[in-house]
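G., the chain you wanted modeled:
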Amino acid sequence: MKKKIAITTAVLCAAVSMTVCADPAVSKIDHTDADAWVEGTNLLRVEDEDKEDYYALEDTDGNMRTDSLYSSSFTGECGFVEASLGQAADENDEQDGYNISGLLNSDGETVIPFEYGKVDVLGEHWAAAEKYKKADYSNYDEAGDDEYYLIDTVDLYYLDGAQAEKAGTLSRDNYADAAAHGRYLSVEDRAASKCTLYDRTFTAVEKDLDNLYATGNTSTEDFETYYEDGSYGLKDSDGNILVKPSYDYISSFAGDYAEVTLDDKAGLINREGKLVLPAEFDSVELNYEGPARADGTIGVYDADGYFAIVQDKLFGFADSNGNVTAKPKYSQDFFTANGASATYTDMENKLHILAADGTDTVLEDKYDKISALEYCSGLLYVTKNDDGDYGLIDWHGNELLPCDYYGITASGDGNYLLVRNDYDDADIYTVTYGSADAGVDQNEAAAEAATE
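Predicted structure as tokens:
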């Protein structure tokens, strides 16, 4: 009898929504000497036990990816790590003490040598490496430790996978700023105050542009909209029509989806031009809590198979099959969207988590504060009690870690946690997620079983 009841329940759930996402689980896998993630990556920063202020990079399996050569300042961008050499640079005859920055890939390999004053990853395919020379207070580009520097030259590197290749070099007069447009790079000329668009070989394809975001007649996107008979359609980079003119507006892609509007209502299409969400909503909210992306995109629409929607000024969720999974019934003004869940406070001042699958959980009073864990798409929340200790709950309010910890942060892909026991001691945990797509399969399998 119990088995029949379980099958019937599965069928009823499938009829309401074809998306079920299993709750996340966490498990401790190792102790670590690391004190922080390199933001947006799966690499950990570890201070050398014998040399203060010298740091190395470690992976989640405990393997050292670099020697202890670097200062504490690491920045993760598009799968690369901007870094600077440690104090040894002042003692190295080959270094001048300020041109000590370079770029590492996710394996800890040097891909841009440590001979620059600053290295900026501009996007998935471009980095600018500025070489400095000493200057004074009357004329400088950068300052630090009571010293002043001018840009001498700028090397532009093309990033391809996990490698970098120098594409071109410009003088300070010819370089004021740059912006990446996919595989193209726009550079502002300091002297002329005009911009030039370069391709990956650093060949100028457009000149005398007014700003860094103008691209002239060159299409720098994988997709482009076109206008015909009063409506917008979509073509790929080869000119193939993906969407015939049928919308009032088509946005640029944010991740795998682009917003379309029709009669002041919004929906989503995917990269094949398929309509994923019908244009029936006031808006589809961007998810800023998802895993770090190689292309540098911050806001994307999807969160573990779900989309946050606003319909008639009410907040809710839908899935990638176009099903509404959490019916919009509360004012959007009271919600904080966090990807696959949202938080709100009710009229009795009680804090709720609304999960994208429709589960509305009232949180217990034992938490002083909660916040969505970055890179985890709203499936995990860090909790804080009155004593200032941290714990972890999932999107349904289930406690995964009690409030006994010094701090909890996630890796760039959201699959690992650095759990600080105190200031000097930490453990690595792995996170297991149940995907929304897997839930669809489970529901369909349950429905099939019920009919056999």
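The radius of gyration is 25 Å.

Shout if anything looks off.
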